[in-house]
Amino acid sequence: MSGRLEGKAAIVVGGGQTPGATIGNGRATSILFAREGARVLVVDRDLDSAKETKAMIDAEGGTAEVHAADVCRATDCESISDRCVELYGAIDILHNNVGIGGGDAGPTRLTEEAWDQIMDVNLKSVFLTCKYALPIMRKQGSGCITNISSVAAVCAVGIVAYKTSKAGLNAYTHALATGNAKYGIRVNAIMPGLMNTPMAIEGISAARNVPREKLIEQRDSIVPLGKKMGTAWDVAYAATFLASDEAAFITGVILPVDGGQSARIG
Question: 88, 132, 162, 172: which is the annotated catalytic residue?
Answer without folding.
Answer: 162
